[in-house]
Amino acid sequence: MKNELSQVVDTLDGLVWTARADGRVDFVNRRWCEYTGLGIDDARDQGWQSVFHSDDLPALLNDGASSRASSQAHDTEARMRRFDGEYRWFLIRALPLKDASGEVVGWCGLNIDIEDRKRAEEALRISERELRELIDRVPGLLAVADSQGRHEYASKRTLAYTHNSLEQVRGLGFINSLHPDEQDRVRQIWLNCVARGEAMDVEHRMRRFDGVYRWFHTRVEPFRDEAGNIIRWYGLLTDIDEQRRVEDALRQREQQLSSAMQIATVAQLSASIAHEISQPLSGILTNASTCLRMLAADPPNVEGAIETARRTIRDANRATDVIARLRALFARKEGATEPVDLNEAARAVMAILHSQLQRNRIVARAELCENLPRVLGDRVQLEQVILNLLLNALEAMNDVDDRPKQLLVTTEREEGDRVRLTVQDAGSGFDDGALHKLFDAFYTTKNGGMGVGLAVSRSIIENHYGQLWAAPNQQGPGASFSFSIPRLPDTNQTSTTHVR
Amino acid sequence: MSVEADRAVKQPLVSVVDDDESVRESLPDLLREFGYSAQAFSSAEAFLSSDYVDHTRCLILDIAMPGMSGPELQRELARRRQALPIVFITAHKDEAIRRQLLDHGAVECLFKPFNEAALLAALHAALRVN
Q1: What is the C-alpha end-to-end distance of chain A, expressed in Å?
Q2: Residues of B in contact with A315 (CB under 8 A)
Q3: Between the CA of residue A238 and those of A218, A242, B70, what are the distances in Å?
Q4: Ramachandran region of residue B100, left (φ > 0), alpha (ψ -120 to 50) or beta?
Q5: Rounded mean pLDDT of chain A?
Q6: pLDDT tens sequence across A159-172
Q7: Residues in chain A within 8 Å Cβ distance of B25
Q8: Across the interface, do A285 and B116 touch by the CB < 8 Å criterion?
């Protein structure tokens, strides 16, 4: 039986040994000898200690002593020298042998080669360290979360930025660095994304080390293993505060400019407005005076008086029309989108400017394409753009005195299902250098005007998915300003919406 | 004295030149109520090519018109040595232009809308000059 047992012991895949109760080794198996290159006599008693790495031996002896004192097993990791001098890690497992009464009568042990595992652990540690170093090197704010969405790691920069320690951001702690108004929202979004396994894109404010809140865009993406399971989440925080403030400022400025353009346009139009209303008022006054005189005559000229009264009503209606048109043009109501006929819009604006054009001796002509397809847009805004272009053309020809002040408004179909409107003047034109400045919000060559019109006009046209541009005239002096916007498909052309 | 001549003295001819139709409609009636006789023309050219130039005792003239403007007609009449008192009327209120026109010999320049008292005063001044 002893032989069979010996065979088993020698076959076991581990280094087996036994020791007496006092710890002195009395047996080592064949594998032990093959591994160490020592014979059983060299290992006996305390001889075995020589194969252990000097750094690990003290701990091992300590554990052994503790075990003898407590009669408990112990597990110790220690390096053992191989026959060729190489040290390999082993797990030393020592177990007490007890007699019937529970007294320790000896020890037996199993040393298992864990070198490969140790190497793998070390490689992993290095790899983790390298990863963290990499994360720390990247010039961005990075963070890593586990598969459950709990923050695991944040790059040094991130921690420094928010003045947090890693402990403070772990789990869901990072939420505390967000602006109070955003904490619930972002937490909700984050947990949803984690639950659904979807990448998260969110904009939020985050507190900087000095207490200032800045806007950030955070994108977090899941990292999956080969089976498709999420093992980690990687996140990048980008400071978009500048950009955000610029966007906000731009939007505010646009609104201001839009109001400014309206005010400036009204100022430019004031002469036109006064004119439009003065004419009918003058007629009313004249006719009323005539009426009274006719009625005071002897005999009263009732027929004549009736005629003057009729004319008075007609003139009053004219004035009312003008007011209604102007009100519509400058109404501050919310933009309304509807099918718009650019021909009608052009005619309406030219009607409003009629007297002003005339007073300035402008020869205004319109060549409007028949059956011009309608476009989808805000009629009031589009009319404002046309108005702006016409006023600019008028202004451009102010100083012209050696040639007819020709102004031509054309509409046409443009390929690509678009509609184009052009205002061509015979003014002094502009040189190439001025071209790109033209649309600059406050660039103006006008003495009295604010040059806000073109910038806002372009913005309006772009909101209609169109383009606004300027070019010097091919033939003759002056310039042409054009805009083109997409047309409505044919099915939408016959709408019953009343367009003025 | 012939009937026409008699009428011409008692009812001096005031010619109105304005491209605005409602002015051409309403002003002559008021002038007739004042006791003048009146003719209306839609353009300076129409007036010049009419038979009424010599008979006109006073011209009520719009400033801004397509084609020949009011001031241009004033210059043309001066060139022809036609001494014709002119009362300009306009909807565009501009003191500088008014000053200019008066310096060039206009009797008055009224801004629309004007009341009948202002018109009457201007007509009296114009015919006194004659």
Answers
A1: 114
A2: 22
A3: 6, 11, 69
A4: alpha
A5: 85
A6: 888 888 888 888 88
A7: 283, 311
A8: yes
**Cα B130 off chain centre by:** 14
The span from the CA of A405 to the CA of A402, in Å, is 9
pLDDT value, residue A450: 36
Determine contact: B92 vs chain A, CB below 8 A.
yes
| Distance (Å, whole) CA A314 – CA A304 | 15
Q: Calculate how close chain B gets to A271, using CA atoms only, in Å.
A: 7
Assigned token pair, B40: 């209306």
d(CA B23, CA A133): 89
Q: pTM of whole model > 0.80?
A: no
Q: Six-digit token pair at A257? A: 């400019």
* Neighbour-count burial for A86-103, b at 16+ CB within 10 Å, e otherwise: ebbbbbbebebeeeeeee
CB contact under 8 A, A355 and B116: no
Tell me the shortest Cα–Cα distance from A281 to chain B, in angstroms: 6
Instruction: Give the distance, in angstroms, between the CA of residue A54 and the centroid of all CA atoms in the same chain.
Output: 60
- Contact (Cβ atoms closer than 8 angstroms) between residue A385 and residue A461: yes
If contacts are CB pairs under 8 Å, which of residues 18-77 in chain B contact chain A?
20, 22-23, 25-27, 29-30, 33-34, 64-66, 69
Distance CA A188, CA A185 (A): 5
B113 contacts in chain A (CB < 8 Å): 278, 281-282, 284-285
Between A88-92, A410-414, A490-494, B51-55, the lowest mean confidence (pLDDT) is in A490-494
Nearest C-alpha neighbor of A408 from the set A400, A397, A419: A397
Instruction: Output the six-digit token pair for A245.
Output: 């403030």
Set of chain A residues whose Cβ sits within 8 Å of the Cβ of B66 = 358
Q: pLDDT tens-digit profile of A104-116?
A: 999 999 999 999 9
d(CA A479, CA A424): 6
Residue B1 near chain A (CB below 8 Å): no
Task: Name residue, tokens 């003058």.
Answer: A282
**CA distance linking residue A446 with residue A397, whole number of Å:** 11
ipTM of predicted assembly, 2 dp: 0.87
Tokens linked to B15:
């010619």
Q: How far is A354 from chain B (nearest CA, A)?
A: 11
- Distance from the Cα of B2 to chain A's closest Cα (Å) equals 27
C-beta neighbour count of A405 within 10 angstroms: 21
Report DSSP letters for A329-379, one per residue.
HH--SPP--EEE-HHHHHHHHHHHHHHHHHHTTEEEEEEEPTTPPPEEE-H
Geometric angle at alpha carbon A418, from A414 and A423, rounded to 5°? 65
